[in-house]
Write a structure and sequence with these properties.
Structural class of chain A: alpha+beta
Oligomer: homodimer
Number of helices of chain A: 7
Order of helices and strands of chain A: HEEHHEHEHHEH
Shape of chain A: globular
Strand content of chain A: 15-25%
Largest interface: A-B, 89 and 89 residues
Mean pLDDT of chain A: 96
Distance between the termini of chain A: 32 Å
Radius of gyration of chain A: 18 Å
């Protein structure tokens, strides 16, 4: 069931995609985070203007929303984004745990204008030793000693 | 071929994982970005202390390194991380395009101490309509109008 609110919020995400593009911030992508029927954070892609490859619209909006809520989770929040999230943003969404995501363009639409994240989806599925970027395992036992300390740590904050 | 430098840099990433944990910044994860044999940026997980679900060690280090280089790409850089990247960080790594990634702990080690990203890997592979978080397509045609404008935009910065 799509509501009048949903229509309004997805339109705002699309507006932001245009605003970011027109202001030379980055690619044509916008997103908003909504809680209790109100927008609590907005974002647009700012990769090229801020020299930050992680500044996708969803990541920007999630970071702002969490800052506003004083929480590292987006409990009961909904994300509206002008385009289906890339694997990085999808990961960010799962860590932030909103209750739903509305998106306008599909990843096929994005690929058509040169934003092809198909390569990344393919790479994620590969065995780590078969990836195009070389992944090399090193010093695992030293790393695990710190993990062991985490397990035994008193007063740790899980997430 | 593992070099003396590789051993040194992975040890630094592991040191940072412990430093972040001990200083209550977040989970036990550290990372460094190296260019021309020198560390240009360091990071550790700061999710819980900064209320930022995207503040994983790799994302923190990538953002700092790009800021330092004044570039949204990590050309000729190597990332050393104390643990195999989660899907979000993997996405960030592919967008940043370093030439290699060295990692100490595996994702199975991380799952053992409660950081299980298997769920996220599974979700990424699912069809969008089958995911646990609800994804709803809405207003695609409006979104595509902005994409069309991007295609026709003069002087746009591709990435």
């Amino acid at each position: 069931m799509i509501t009048e609110q949903d229509n309004r919020f997805i339109k705002r995400a699309i507006e932001l995609s245009e605003k970011g593009m027109d202001s030379q911030a980055g690619g044509p992508f916008g997103a908003v985070v909504v809680k209790n029927g109100e927008i609590i954070a907005e974002g647009f892609n700012a990769v090229t203007s801020s020299n930050d490859p992680t500044a996708h619209a969803e990541v920007v909006a999630i970071r702002k929303a969490c800052e506003k809520l004083g929480s590292f989770q987006l409990d009961d929040c909904i994300i509206y984004t002008s385009c289906e999230p890339c694997p990085m943003c999808l990961g960010a969404i799962y860590w932030a745990r909103p209750k739903a995501v509305y998106y306008a363009c599909t990843k096929e639409d994005a690929a058509e204008i040169g934003f092809d994240d198909h390569f990344i989806y393919d790479e994620i599925d590969k065995k780590i030793e078969d990836r195009n970027v070389k992944f090399i395992n090193l010093d695992r036992e030293e790393g695990r000693k710190v993990f062991k300390k985490w397990e035994e740590k008193e007063g740790r904050v899980d997430y």
